[in-house]
């Protein structure tokens, strides 16, 4: 019985780890200065598939921010997320324009 319990705990832990990493992405991010920039400097972003209202953790170098999905995009090959100006500023990518990020 104890062996079965241990096996189930191991399977459950492995399953949670797989689900956690299943949504991790890395690729290019850009920022946009039009329209949906968020209210009062809110950190928002555009993503092709994540549900509206979901919160993504975007990391660039040693910086990491959380931003809310409120738009669809980017529609340029190789880019995985478009950030609002306040989000890009918080991430420290304003001067670069396009940077490689990881999104969780």
List the helices and strands and how they pair.
Elements: H1 2-22, E1 25-32, E2 44-46, E3 55-60, E4 63-71, E5 79-84, H2 85-91, E6 99-103
Parallel strand pairs: 1-5, 2-4
Antiparallel strand pairs: 1-6, 2-5, 3-4, 3-6
Gyration radius, in Å? 17 Å
Helical residue percent? 25-40%
Please work out how many helical segments DSSP would assign.
2
Q: Give the total of beta strands.
A: 6
From the helix content, strand content and strand pairing, which structural class follows?
Answer: alpha/beta
The average pLDDT score comes to: 83
Instruction: Summarize the main sheet.
Output: 6 strands, mixed, barrel
Q: So what's the overall shape?
A: globular
Question: Which blocks of ≥5 consecutive residues have pLDDT under 50?
Answer: 7-21
């Amino acid at each position: 019985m104890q062996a079965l319990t241990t096996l189930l705990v191991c399977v459950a832990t492995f399953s949670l780890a797989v689900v956690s990493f299943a949504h991790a992405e890395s690729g290019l991010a850009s920022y946009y200065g039009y329209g949906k920039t968020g209210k009062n400097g809110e950190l928002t972003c555009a993503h092709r598939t994540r549900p509206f209202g979901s919160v993504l953790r975007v990391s660039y170098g040693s910086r990491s921010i959380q931003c809310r999905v409120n738009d669809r995009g980017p529609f340029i090959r190789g880019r995985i997320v478009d950030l609002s100006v306040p989000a890009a500023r918080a991430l420290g990518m304003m001067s670069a324009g396009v940077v490689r990020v990881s999104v969780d």
